[in-house]
Specification:
Bound molecules: pyridoxal-5'-phosphate
Distance between the termini: 44 Å
Number of helices: 12
Strand order of the largest sheet: 1-2-10-7-8-9
Oligomer: single chain
Largest sheet: 6 strands, mixed
Shape: globular
């Protein structure tokens, strides 16, 4: 991994990435942002909430934004390897097929078999290994097979691509009071926060939301350096073992704070969103859980943007959640 610093993320660079993402042959969508009131489901908090529907994004999550920028900036027909059991893997596989590149996804053997089948259906190789071996296998692919490693959250091009989401938010709501974003390794939060702050919204407060059992960015803020932990959460996309280095630097600069939610609160959020007619996966629902449980400071009467970051959930999983 290179040692790019937060200083290399400039407004010009994010604008250029935004152009790349919106013109991408991968068909990235400028997703709708709608007022919560449109769902007609009452909430206990009194503020104006707008929801950004990345669950309707191509491949079912925001990850395609960053992937579109990563692939656009690398040689066509390249040989790429990544490690992911979820949404990044799906977007990576979709892009590999489109660009005709040879792709490989190294996946923990604990991931559902259905994920491997889906990724393989795009013509991408999957290797399932014990979690403790993931990085060793990636390193082997880089050294022995001459593949290029694409990181799923700690990568400048990826973060710049994710920033397009923040720019779209500002086109609808030019100066939101608060923006709430789900956080795993921190790539999405870093990109959105950098886009909003570098665009001049000094007063906008941006919060990341993590599960209590996978709070690497929260711990990184406390320890003032990117740290790891043994993570466990129903929101598997929010549970990588480390906060990203570049995401951490950007979040420290542009993010107000990290809010924690329990797995129970996430499950209830998935159900509430479903009752509102929205299919959102646990990893995409944490930001909403923080709002719905009144965990964001000073929300009263404010304009709040809640990013619903992904919708990849099957009906079996949904059936396990409260009504
Ligand atoms: C739906 C969803 N939301 C949010 C995240 C967190 O993204 P990041 O790792 O960039 O923080 C992920 C990661 O996989 C995800 O799948």
């Amino acid at each position: 991994m290179d040692e790019t610093s937060a200083d290399s993320v400039t407004l010009d660079m994010l604008r250029e990435a935004r152009e790349t993402v919106s013109r991408s042959p991968l068909g990235v969508i400028n997703t709708p942002m709608i007022p919560w009131s449109q769902t007609t489901l009452p909430l206990s908090v009194s503020c104006n909430i707008q929801i950004k529907l990345e669950n309707l994004q191509r491949t079912g999550s925001f990850k395609i934004r960053g992937v579109a920028n990563q692939f656009a900036r690398r040689p066509k027909g390249g040989r790429f390897v990544t490690m992911s059991a979820g949404n990044y893997g799906k977007s990576f596989a979709y892009a590999s097929k489109h660009y005709g590149s040879q792709g490989k996804v190294v996946m923990p053997e604990t991931a559902p078999e259905s994920k491997s089948i889906l990724i393989q259906s795009f013509g991408v190789e999957v290797e399932r290994v014990p979690t403790s071996c993931l990085m060793n296998v990636v390193n082997r692919c880089v050294q022995d097979d001459n593949m290029t490693f694409l990181h799923s959250y700690d990568d400048l091009d990826l973060i710049a691509g994710h920033a397009s989401l923040g720019m779209e938010v500002l086109e609808v709501l030019p100066e939101p009071d608060v923006v709430v974003v789900c956080c795993g390794g921190g790539g999405l939060l870093a990109g959105v926060a950098a886009a909003i702050k570098l665009s001049g919204c000094d007063k906008t407060r941006i919060y990341g939301v993590e599960p209590e059992g996978a709070c690497t960015m929260y711990k990184s803020f406390t320890e003032k350096k990117p740290v790891g932990m043994d993570t466990k959460s129903i929101a598997s996309g929010l549970a990588p073992p480390f906060a990203g280095r570049l995401p951490y630097e950007l979040c420290q600069r542009y993010v107000e704070g990290i809010i924690l939610v329990s797995d129970e609160e996430i499950k209830t959020a998935v159900s509430t969103l479903y009752r509102a007619g929205l299919v959102v996966e646990p990893s995409g629902s944490a930001a909403f859980a923080a709002i719905d449980n009144n965990k964001i400071p000073d929300m009263e009467e404010k304009n709040i943007v809640c990013i619903l970051s992904g919708g990849n959930i099957g009906k079996d999983e949904l059936a396990n959640f409260p009504d």
